[in-house]
Amino acid sequence: MRSRGRQKSVFRSQYSEFRLLPSVIVFAVVLAAWVPVKAAELPLSEFEARFTPQETPVCMNYDVGYRLLNIELRRVAKVVATTTIGTWRHRVTGKNIPALFLDMRVDSPDTVTPGRRSRISIHDRIIAVLTVPDMQALLFAKHTDEYLRPLIHATESLGASVYDTQSGTLEFENRNLKTGVISSNLVNSAALFKLSHRIRPVMDFLVAQYKAPTPDAALSDNGRIVANLDGKVAALRILTHRERSPNCLTRRRFDSLCARTVIEKGSTARPRDFHAWSMTFAALARILHDEALLQSALHAPVETVVPLVMDYELALGSVRVTMTSIYLGKDCREPPQDSMVTESPEPVTEE
After folding, report:
1. Is the pTM of this model over 0.85?
2. Is residue 191 one of the residues assigned to a domain?
C-alpha cells in the first residue's frame, strides 16, 4: 500500500505541475516582446478591443513535449504566440499610448470522442500589454481551461486571472468560472509591481550577453528578477553562457545564449531547474534569410531576444518547449510553408 501511495503522489505532482507550463512560457516569450493577433473569444476579448495594431504580427509556433531521461515520451501541446506594435487605450487616462500586445495560446490535442477530454487537455490563453519603448507591463491576463487526468485522480481548472498596473499599483483579480468565486488576494504585490517595471533592463542585459558575454555578468543587478514560487515571491538570478541550442526549427542547432535561473544567496526557496536558449531577433532573421523578419527587427522600437528552446524541470521528468516556426503574417494559426527552415544535420552558427 505504501508503494501505491507513493506512485499516486508522483502522478499527482507530475501532472499538476503542467499547470505551471503557461507561466514558464510567458516568462520567456515576454522576453521576445517585439511583435498582434486578432481573436474575439471571452473572457479576454475586452482587452483586444482596447488595442489597435499598427504593425504586422510576428508569429512564433512551439511544440511542448514531456521528457523523461532525456527522451520525449509525449507531445503535450502546441503554442502559438504573436506580438504586435500598436496603441493601447489606457484604462485610467483614456489616452492611446504606444504599446506591445502579446497574445499566446496553449492547446493540447484532444480526443475525437464527443464529450470526452484527453488525459492532458490544456486550452489556455494569455494576453500581456507592455509600453514601448520602456517595456513596462500594464496588463497580464490569463484564461485557464485545463483537465488533467493521470491514472487515479483527475483535476479540472476553469478560470480567469488579471494583473493590472494601470492605476499605479498592482490590482489583481482571479475568477473561478465554474463557481463564480472571485479572489483579489495576492502575496507580496509590491515586489511583483516592481518587477513589472524592470522588464526593459532585464531584456537589455540578455541582449548584451548574447552579443558579448562578460565574466562579471553574474554580479549585474539587471540579471536579478523575482518570481512567484508556490505562492511565495522569491529572488532569482539569471546566469548566462553561450552554447549551441538543442534541436529546433526542423532539427537545427543555433549558436545561442543559454540562460538559467538560480536562487539568490540566503533564500530558502527551491525553484525547479529552468533553462532557455535564445538569440536576438535580428540575428535569427539573418540566419533564416527572411527579409520580412529582418525588416521587422530593424524597425522594432526595442532590441530583444527570442526564445528558441526552454526546459522546465518537473517532479518527475521535464517539459521542453521547442520553436517550430517564426514568420510575419496576419494569420498565425497555420504557418506558411516557407516559414519552416530547411532541415539540416549540421549545427547552425550566426553569419
Report:
1. no
2. yes
